[in-house]
Amino acid sequence: MERSLSVSLKGFNDESLAHLVGNSLLSSFNELNQHVDISRLEQISVGYSDEDYISLLSEFRDGLDRTNDSIAVGAGMTVISNPTDLSFRIFFSGIGIIGLIKKHYDNDESLLASSIHTIVHEFMHVYVGTELYTNYPELLTTITPKNLHEELKWKTILSCWDEYRVCTLCANFGENPCESYEGILKNALSDFDHNITKAKMNRSDWGILLKKVYAEIHGLLKYSSYYLGTCKGLEINYLDTNFYNEILSNSWFAPYFNQLEKALSAIDKGFDKEDNDIELLLEISTILVELSLHTGVLVQEKPDNSVWVQLLF
Length: 313
What we know:
With 313 residues, the chain is an alpha/beta fold. It has helices at residues 15-33, 50-60, 98-106, 112-135, 148-170, 178-199, 206-233, 242-248, 254-272, 278-294; strands at 6-10, 41-47, 76-82, 87-93, 297-301, 307-311.
């Protein structure tokens, strides 16, 4: 059953183009919603330029900004707009759906497959978010981080699972993203040591140091989750790929990568068995802490909920 969905577009100088893009997004939503439940999506917002996109994010929630690290810049975002009734809102930048815009602007479909994948990817975040918070309602109610360390751990847990599951579901829509994710993960891995060294330089504020170190580890695990989820969705054994055998298997990161795959697969199987054990999710944070030790950063949570950070080297 089709449902009404609000679409807002910012920065489009051509009203006809804006209507065509908006209608295409609505059609895509209604078509996908017949197969997977993304009915909790209440609004799609599109910013034509980067400035328009960033403006839409900040207008929605103060401090909300696009993903932007040393490896990748986000062109789409799905957020929970109302935790009480679990509704979602999606934001796209014009760059993220440029193939759709070009199709309607000058009938150029050369980039359409890429945009289709991006659009479905964000729609699947609605499905996966609904699935996660329906099966683990305590994530929105009783589980509240008691300190910075817990906050950073949960951020990584939810990000890794979310991207793994989404990439599994959308792998076959539009452009095959596998090569792109291989490149992103390769860059994240090659830059990791340098970025960690930079993150550890400023020791005047241990909280900031911890955030910076964990941000680098978070990124590496998140991009690994993209790749692992895509392999699963394409029914590829990641152990048989050239990327794994030529790049990952020979790196220091291989044991952690394999550990992450096992953790994500266990969560996946838990959903199939309706085994909603929170410990399955927490295994991802175990990998995060182990990687922190690998970088020479020891983090301990004290009984009074304070966090102790020590540089080992």
